[in-house]
Amino acid sequence: MALHESLRPAPGLRVLITAGAGGIGAAIARAFHAAGAQVHVCDIDRLALDRLLTESPGLTGTPADASVPSDVDAVFEGVRHHLGGLDVLVNNAGIAGPTAAIEDIDAAAWERTLAVNLDSQFHFARRAVPLLKASGANPSLIAMGSVAGRLGYAYRTPYAASKWAIVGMTRSLAIELGPQGVRVNAILPGVVEGARMDGVIAARASALDISPQAMRQQYLDKISLRRMVTADDVAATALFLSSPGARNLTGQVISVDGNVEYL
């Protein structure tokens, strides 16, 4: 195999992406689809899911709340029907959670953030691993973390706690599943351009009583490259981690963030 060919996923790879109808998830879904993979996505947003499936014929999907075990079961019924097996799981579901001082965060907001960001990764990994073990196509589990999984993040404690936990889960599963040939890695996106980041900036600006413009500049000043990353940057890393060229990469936590120095 030529070097350049080893850096692309093999055609026909069977891929499941959680929260795949918008943002980073949709960018990853489109990238795998363009590379010739069979892609199934799930998303809680039915309108966004319908839009993606209409815009990208050949993709399949299941409406689901990734934190609800019965919904996860429905997703895997869709995987069985449409893909007939699984080679790559991209555990992408996540929410921003509350932006507030710890004493002002209520228990429901904490629990919902952990349920979506962390529990969903458990539910999907638990169901996906037997299928990945049966794959003969360089199987891979990719966990979507965040730069907040390697740095402290004041006023975003639930989010940061969930993302640090994903790093521990990734490294533990890499050890557990390595003997069966299943690779497990995490991608930690940094400050990603888009509507979700705009909302995070606005909420943090309000919490700190400064303007959104000043808050945006503060974020940029913390990045060594002084620019945000894009969803396509993250998707490119997911493609590489699923390629033959990454066959000996496991247990790795890869920041795609322009080197965020602090939060």
Automatic annotation (TrEMBL):
InterPro entries: NAD(P)-bd_dom_sf, Sc_DH/Rdtase_CS, SDR_fam. Keywords: Oxidoreductase. It comes from the Bacteria. GO terms for molecular function: oxidoreductase activity, acting on the CH-OH group of donors, NAD or NADP as acceptor. Belongs to the short-chain dehydrogenases/reductases (SDR) family. NCBIfam families: PRK12826.1-2. This is Short-chain dehydrogenase reductase sdr. The lineage of its organism: Bacteria, Pseudomonadati, Pseudomonadota, Betaproteobacteria, Burkholderiales.
